Amino acid sequence: MDPAPPIDVGIALVGSLMLALLVTLIALALRTRRRARLTIPAADVPAVETERAVDGAALLAAVGEAEAAGQTQRLPGLYLSLAQWRRDLGETDAAEDLLRKSIRAAASAGLKESHAKARVALGDIAQAKGDPATACEHWQIARGLFHELKRQGEHDAVDARMQRNGCPTDWVLTDF
Known about the structure:
Elements lengths: L8 H30 L17 H14 L5 H14 L3 H18 L2 H17 L3 H17 L3 H13 L12
């Protein structure tokens, strides 16, 4: 009986590569299916409450007064309301700037609730703009703040939002 001809090393490597690629594709498909089953419909996720401003002109005047008087405890909430008003008008860039002002002012004043709400809104804007990594970062910070405040409802709403959008929920963030 004739011995089997030796297998070419190049063919063996190509075959191994194809097998590895096939296994990777199967693993990704299973992961995607698993995530789809774990997804929470958007309608089932409660919103994080933000204050709604009715009168933009009065809000602008209140911000001006608070800035002039140095009312640092009042400014984060006013910036947040003004940002929501701008967002409702479709002025997303102006809303983003105001949300960042709210975050800075809230962090300086130690107002974690305003800080968290601004982070949620900024994350929502980032997600709408197609930047899920930035959105997840903002939501993660907001979730941590709500946890510190022992605000379980808001914490759970942000956690569900993160899960719905495929954010990792076990991050440890630094330098943000």
